[in-house]
Amino acid sequence: MSQVFVLVPGAADAAPELLAAALALFPGSTPTALVAGHGPALDAAAQAAAATFKEVWAFGGAALAHPNAELLRPLLAKALPAGASVVLAHDTLGMDLGPGLSVKLGAAYLPDVVGVEAAGGASLTVLRQEFGGQAHARVACDASGGVVATARSGAFRPGEGQGPGTVLDRSGDAAGLQARRRFVELVQAEAGDVDITKEDVLVSVGRGIGDKENLPLAEELAEAMGAVISCSRPIVDAKWLDKARQVGTSGQTVKPKVYLALGISGSFQHLGGIKGGPFLVAVNKNPKAPIFQVADVGVVADLLELLPELTEAVKKAK
Amino acid sequence: MEILVCVKRVPDPAENEITVEGGDIGRDDLVYAVNEWDNYAVEEALQIVEREGGSVTVVTVGGAEADETLRREMAMGAEKGLLLSDPAFEGADGLGVARVLAAAVRKGAYDLVLTGAMADDGAAQVGGMLAALLDWPFASLVNRIEGTGPLRIGREIEGGAQEVSDIDLPCVLSIQTGINEPRYVGIRGIRKVASAEIPVLDAAALGADPGAPKVRRLAYFVPEAGPGAELLEGGTRDVAARLAGILKAKGGIK
Lengths: 318, 254
Fold this sequence. Notes:
- The structure holds two protein chains of two kinds.
- Chain A is α/β, with parallel strands linked by helices.
- Chain A is built from nine helices and 16 strands.
- In chain A, the strands form three sheets. A seven-stranded parallel sheet of chain A has the order 5-9-4-1-2-3-10, sandwiched between helices. In chain A, strands 13-12-14-15-16 form a five-stranded parallel sheet. In chain A, strands 6-7-8 form a three-stranded antiparallel sheet, with helices on one face.
- In chain A, α3 (69-79) runs parallel beside α4 and α5 (215-225) runs parallel beside α9 (303-317).
- Chain A is elongated and about 70 Å long.
- Helices cover 29% and strands 27% of the residues of chain B.
- In chain B, α3 packs across α4.
- The longest helix of chain B is centred in the N-terminal third of the chain and has 17 residues, at 36-52.
- Chain B is globular.
- In chain B, 49% of the residues are buried.
- At the A-B interface, α3, α4, β5, β7 and β8 of A face α3, α4, β9, β10 and β11 of B.
């Protein structure tokens, strides 16, 4: 079997889950963790990874202080043995690094894997989702020349670790590294006039609201409930609401007690921003919307019809 | 700046409920559109050319039906279209599509190639593979582009933060939604490009071979559904009253 590697991002909380994904994809393997960085931050990341993995390869150097994919891709292409397989998180680094890395390694690419159906042979069959989670797919690949796979966060349950492990300094491989994409700065998201991360009750609006003109229907409901308006990504893309109100992996992570999803289909990026197991109510006109799989209570309805009635009913129920 | 934008024809998420029948998605009544991310990529290319000069070419890999996809993007303002079409391209995996696109890039003299950050299959792979095949630098999930080269770009990362970098040209960038507001395409715009000539290049003309696919989708399937939501059914007023009662009981009404 090809040697299996797992890229462990700076924040090592994900290490046990990534090991679980690697063991599901490559049963019986002893994956090696890869960490990159500079100075004390690298040492800390390597030690954290060694708690979970039997072996850690640490790539250090000033050039890796901000280890973007344009640095990591040539580095890994040089440092990894022929036929290697690499497991990454399906996060913004994994999406940046994975596709090109698979080309450079001559490996098959399996992005955003949510499950494994058959592993251990020359062919590997995994489960994916398409159409924003509306359809599931079995996908097979030729694993004989190695595989680069990205694992969806939350899809693999962490099991027993293989640590404590040893850290190997592989910084020699990082010598002379030059990227044609150079880090400038990190700009944090602007704070808005509300902090949805602190709210107990959120009325969250998605694409199903249809038009900016319909937003007041949701705002009136939120006002009647004493709740705050949040939203999914398309509403921010359309500039109907501020980025500060966006729930999801590319927006805010919220922990409300009650979450009312209005016209939100329930992509994993959106659901990834809802923590703490709130009571989740979904209203959507599409009965197949993935949100109904995770909601406690659902209504298949047209928002424009339901919202005015619901606002009236909430006022009466007070 | 000469810019190539790679676009894809996909089932329109706003117009379709995706169903699964016999291992495939139900295709009988599917309404197709340009992949949403690609419209942002085309708009960004148009804005760069309006600022810096140059021209925008839109390209896709597909059959004759992809012609309308290109014309819609040309109606936005892209000067040229390019259809890469050959029976040998059917069934190509992400890498195969990237290889065909790479052949088209090599035939031109582009400074910048844009793709949407992802499409209907959520793989988000073709842009990064294309860059690797061309050995050009790459950035994904780009939500800001400034300058003339090196470009100053922003990538959308976790939590809504932005990673700002400088990237050398030529490069490949995959574009995230929200970077701009794609312009409206009216019926007049479509008419204006109805007779524009769109060259069709096959495998021989491109010198492209997608190669045997390493990755194959075996089947679509319906996962065993969990218990799912308790669905409230009935008249609108009745459902609203019951839902209000549930919200109140769960502390959702203050």
